[in-house]
Every structure is written in C-alpha cells, then in structure tokens.
Amino acid sequence: MSIKRWTPLLASVLAGLASVALAEPSPARQQELVRLVRQDCGSCHGMTLRGGLGPALLPATLAEKPAEGLVATIIGGRPGTPMPPWHRFLAEDEAQWIVAKLMAGFPE
Amino acid sequence: MKRISQLVVAALLALLLGACGGVPLRGTGDLGLVIERASGHVTLVNTSSRSAYARVGGLGDLSHASVVFSRDARYAFIFGRDGVLSKLDLLEGRIVKRVMQSGNAIGGSISQDGRIVVAQNYTPGGIKAFDAETLELLAEVPAEYAPGRFSKVVGLADAPGNKFAYALFDGGEIWVSDFSDPKKPVTQRYPAGQQPYDGLVTPDGRHYLAGLFGEDGIALLDLWQPEKGARKILEKYGRGEEKLPVFKMPHLRGWSVAAGRAWLPAIGRHEVLVADATTWKETGRVAVKGQPVFVIASPDGRQVWVNFAFPDNGWVQVIDTLTGQVVQTLQPGKAVLHMEFTPRGEAVWLSARDDNRVVIYDTKTFRALGSLTADAPSGIFFTSRAARTGF
Is A43 on the interface with B (CB under 8 A)? Predict the structure, then answer.
C-alpha cells in the first residue's frame, strides 16, 4: 500500500470535492439528479447501481477510476458500448457532482 | 362407510378453510400482478374488476423484474434484479418460496411442459434451471463463450421441446439449450452478431430473433432447422446514418408479431421496423416519437402499442397494423415503463412510474377507463401469459 497506489484515488476524491465545492446544484436540482441516476441510469446500471447491462457504479468499483474520465463518459458517452452521451440533460458541473456522489456512495 | 365419512370430513374442511382463509374458489384467468420496482412489492390485480386485491412485499430489488406463470396460472415466478427467484401464489396472495440464484439477474422463462423455470443472469453470466414445483436447482449453463470469458445473458425465451433460446451480449452468439433431460442440458451455439441486447421467440415457437445493438440488423434462427445457423435480417436499416443516442435499451418479446409481420424497435432511430414474418424482408417502417422500448401487439394483432426511452417516456403511440400508420398518440402519465393487454385485448394497462399509478385504457375508444395507485410501477404481467410460448 504505497502512497503511489493511493495517489489517483486521492486526486479523484479531491477533484470530486473541488467540483462539489465549486458548483453545487440547488437542492431541488440535486433531487432531480438523484432521481435521474437511480431511475434512468439505473435502467442499465441497476437502480441500486450494482450493475446490469452496464457496469456497477459503486464506490468500490469506481475507486480506481479518475473522476475526470467518468465525467467525460457521462457527458460524451462511450462509443462502441451502449453508454449514450448525456450532455443534452446534464451540465458538466452536474456530471461532476454526480461522479463525486457516486464515488462517495450515492444518495437514495 | 369409512370412505364416505372421510369425504364428508374433507368437504367440511374445505368449506371451513374457504371461509376462514377468505379465499373462495375461483380461477386465475383474470388475475395478474404489477411490479412496484422501488419498494420490493407486487400488487396483485384483477382485470375484470380493474382493481387491486392484494399487495405482497419483501421481494427485494425488483428493478427490471420480470415474471412468468406456472402452467396452471396460479403461481407467478418473479425474477428479481438481485438474483432472487420468488414463487408467489396468486390465490393466497403470498410468497411460497424464494431462492437466491445469482448475483444479478435479468429475467426468466418457463419450459413448454411447465416443469422447469430458467433464470437468465448477468453475473455470473449464464442460465440456471429450477424445478418449478420446489425451486430446487436442476442444472446450469455458464455462458462461457471463450475460455475464462463469461457473457451477460439476454433474451431468454422458451421454445418447443423444453428448449430455451438466449443470446450472449458479450459473446455475440445465440445459444439453444435442450432440457429434455432437465439435469443434463445440451447446448448448441450459433454466431449471431455484435452485442445482442434482447431476443424473442415467435408465437409459434419457430423463430428466435435477437436484436443487435452493435450493428444494424437482427439475427434470426429458425428453430425448426437450426443447423442452417443464424442469419441477419433488416441488415443496414440505419443506412449508414449516425445513430441517435439510446437512453434505454429496447425490449423484445413474442408479442411483436402481428398481422403476418414482425414489428421491431430500431436502435438509434425513432422508428418501428416492419418485416414480413415469412420472408423476413423489410416491408416498411413507422416513424414514431422517440426510441421505441416496447413494441407490443394487441392479442388480435390489429394494433401495436409503442412506448419510448427517456426523455420521450411520457408518450405512447398506437400503430394500426392494417394501414401501418400511427393512429393515436397518448400521454398516459410520467415515465411509462410497460404495457400489458387484457387476455383478449379490450383494454391495456400501462404503468406510469413517476405518477405512481397504473392507467387502464380502452383499446377501441382510447379513453382512460380507470387507474390504480402503485409505488413506482414497472412491469405488468397477466396470467394469460401462462399459455403462450415466449412468455
């Protein structure tokens, strides 16, 4: 368990924290985002986010992934997979908020 | 004499039980259930009185839950997303048995003879067969399409001869497992195409179709002559145009065959594709409001009802199969997830998840006949499925 191993995780957590600190959606919008993630992202990733046709979106499964990459996947989709781009429905800072919440444990 | 007294006692007992249990003798042909996805409940419903008669909880994660019925149409087998298979008695309104069968399940099917219930799983990828009576595990077929590589299984459908056809999302194949010997299934594999996302068997049990996500087209396997292998139909229906984003995967079931044609959701196009169900050549397309999710024919095949992926999931459109035109556009509620016709199709029930209700429409007048409250309803399943191949 060297510090090196934890650096990407730390960086992503910090990035997540920073984005939350910078642009927190309004409480009403947060509710909408939680609902969107649980219900609509949930149709592939599972309502409990334990995965389905799409991979699980739990803190443990995302821990090694850089937050920026996850935000880019949400906004732009992932060609070659069923993951569509969500930019029509989400601003980048909202995607950042979602990623930070996913990595910390997503609200009900 | 002894025999007569035994009969009298039995009759009295039956009467008493009937009276005490509050369950008068009745059939199940007009019963069904509604999945309440978020709370792990199902609401049991009666399509004659258009009402709920019981609610059963404790069913776990029911997001994307699906249901098949025993051949006597008394028991519902509910496949939960969390891998739990539950057997529910519709008459007594209670869970008879539950088994944890996998980590992540996506649905199931029941054999032609009604003795085998099969679950399809994402994790670990494969299918598992259970005794319909006891839910005892009979056999499993891991979807190991290459050494050490397992695929998510989609599109499981029962076929005549106690066979089950299904598709491998990651493996790009259609598999047919023969459960003639329930403990020793024999599996044949057929290359299908890129990323099959769901499948269906036609109502006569002859053809298995797997919709492809990774390419334009649908893989078709003739189960009467499977040795010919799967071929592609409706190839290149996208004409090389860029796909629209798909915010929810479409679903296929045997109900999309109507008026001699198959009505199928396009992927990444706001169209329903129409193919002749004999030649499997494209005969037309119907432009619709969004990415189709369910394309469901009424029992008589005269209408096809279509719902849509986010963000168009507040709409439902009805296609007249005679003219191939959209004849009705409805807004039954917020987030319409599923539709189910009554056994002979005079009404259709639709779940409006975000309105927490199920809405019932008259299929002739398109007027709302009533509604029921339910907690984030998703799938609606009526017992008329019990007698249909592919359901």
Answer: yes
